[in-house]
Amino acid sequence: MASHEASVVVDRPVRTVYDQWTQFTTFPQFMSGVERIDQISDTKTHWVTSVGGVHREFDAEVTEQTPDQRVAWKSVDGTSHAGVVTFHRIDDGKTKVMLQLDIAPEGFVEKVGDALGAVSHQVNGDLKHFKEFIESRGAETGAWRGGVDQDATR
Fold first, then answer.
1. Distance (Å, rounded) from C-alpha 124 to C-alpha 37?
2. CATH architecture of the region 2-137
3. Do the beta carbons of residue 110 and residue 100 sit within 8 Å?
4. What are the pLDDT digits (tens) for 107-142?
5. CA–CA separation, 121 vs 6, rounded Å?
6. Contact in structure between 102 and 82 (CB atoms under 8 Å)
7. Which residues have C-beta within 8 Å of that of residue 67, sequence separation ≥ 6?
8. Domain ranges of the chain
């Protein structure tokens, strides 16, 4: 499993930034390689991705969610994928977003791409696109303020 980390400072309040992140169906608007995300339930999503010509579909579940602080998820089938994003208030109008993504590259092309830094480059680029997306809008497209207790998902 390969781990990738990135962070970005967004010129918006923590609540706005967090609320936007909970709108998984908007991810294709700022994440390259994500073609579609379907919201199955409050905590389950279905992802359709295409990265470097490799098409994948998998389901994921939110394993931990604390409003304005943290969202963690993992795949439940298909590709091995897990991540956590944390939100840190810098001041009333600035938020630091920190993302850690753990993936298991499959096949020769994905392993070579990961070794050459392609995944890290994409993660950094996607966070920058998220920053541009939320800053250009000025407001979140929606919100889910519910919590998910990590112990309850085990």
1. 20
2. 2-Layer Sandwich (3.30)
3. no
4. 776 667 666 666 777 889 999 999 999 999 878 888
5. 9
6. yes
7. 18, 145, 146, 147
8. 2-137
